Amino acid sequence: MAIGIRSYRPLMTGTTHMASTGHYLATAVSYSILEQGGNATDAGVAAGLTLNVVLPQYTSLGGVAPILVHDAQKNETKSISGLGRWPQTASIAYFNDNHGGQLPPGVLRTVTPAAADGWLTALQRYGTMTFEQVATPAMEIAQRGFPIPETLHRALVKEADNLVHDEGEDIRWPSTLAVFYRDGKALATGDVLVQSDLARTFRRMIEVERDSASRGREEAIRAVRDFFYQGEIAEEMVQFIQEQGGLLSMDDLGKFQVGVDEPPSINYKGIDVYTCGPWCQGPVTLQTLSILEGCDLKGMGHNSADYLHTVIEALKLAFADRHAYYGDPDFVDVPLTGLLNPAYGAQRRGLIDLHRAAPQMPNPGDPWAYQSGTRPDRKYQHPEPVGGRLEADTSYICTVDQWGNAFSATPSDGIGGSPVVPGLGFVVSARGSQTWLDPDHPCALEPGKRPRLTPNPAMAFKDGKLWMPFGTPAGDVQCQSMVQMFLNVAEFGMDVQQAIEAPRVSTWSFPNSFWPHAYYPGLVGMEGRIDGETARNLRERGHQVDVWDDWTPRMGALCAVEIDRERGALFAGADLRRDGYAMGR
Predict the structure, then answer these.
(1) Rounded to the nearest 5 degrees, what angle is found at the Cα of 441, between the Cα atoms of 258 and 371?
(2) Residues 130-164: pLDDT tens digits?
(3) Are 566 and 463 in contact (CB under 8 A)?
């Protein structure tokens, strides 16, 4: 057992295929698809659709779903953006003129739904099964219902305040209340949650595929996609959003399509790590690892004060660049080549003072010096501290099949962000909440622009061969937990279950991705299992350490599958901080 780390769940092992997801029912569905002969994408999409049913507090069919797919036969790894765009009628001026420079919660934060297109695009391009085959388990769970776990009950209790106006008892989102509450009270743990409208939506999509089956599998899936974005479902979404005062139009939906791109990567001590692009925060993981590569992390000792201080300071440097440079590359010239250049990582590494924490978010670096091109003339102003909630939603999926394919996805957008669409049973993405109304910010709102997304899946490769898909929910903590888990395996030799369970820290010394972008300079969250002497040492270096619960879900819910090619084995782990489980054979 690596460096004395105990795990409370067994490491899942196998030789054929593996799945690890953010909910046990999604993992069971994914495993079933793999057992039926489906590949990693078939199993991943089936799990994603199931998460849209069993984790309504965190995900939605109308939400977001960034995806990484590795196709072993083609020897290619692609990202599928799974992120919507602002309506064409949205603008900073609109919110300044009509809402006092604020982004009101609910439908005014609506961007085009992207998860459905992400699932369908992945299935069409890299799957082998029909939509009916992968969607039927989710449809059946929605129709028959499932007993609510304690985690969902707590979320419903927490979100109840969002459903009633602060100034009275008027119901803000009655369509949500009708599904998840009885007599105004959250469904209790053990109550069976039935989502008939969502089941009907799946059934309608399946019927479209059946009607188009003569055109072949891929064209039939395309017909399902068109039905969602141009047909009756699109019309019902738009009608509801506009009735509620939102800006989404049929034209916005008709023009929308997810991107399929080459994902960025870096090499960390012989391991190639891939994430999605700077339209999400994924490159933070890559930048942080690039900064840390030249540090003797193993020599410092796992979760020692020196080690945690170094990791925290590296993360702060990466988040400073995220704040200054990341945004939709269709609208913003992001210097990603420079940001991921090893020489730039070394330059940023040199700014870490081992004895003293940066009291606030550091200034951004100059990645343009490490790549060709012209630096845009864009103003940078260091942010002022802002109070507010530190959001941590989302879920995660990873699968590996017997042919060496892999799927890694981070779906999101739950019922707390926007009302359920009556008759459809899902919320439309309110991911506009991750936008700035500052025109000089790279994530400033523009018509048709994507907000910068927190969800970001990852994959790692050794010697050019798939090694480990991994990821987690938790908003701005995602990259932080992913970096720590990766280092637990790559540097300290832990198995993936040990690496997932090991206690973690998080920095909040940067503007939060969610409106109103809370910023707490110097704040560090630390799980209580890290010893008090380490916390004291970090405080002496200038960190404002806040000790959290021993197993707090605020640190995410990691999942990972590791491939051991020497022994011909698969190992999978899932986080006990939430409802995740791993399964395989």
Answers:
(1) 75
(2) 999 999 999 999 999 999 999 999 999 988 877 76
(3) no
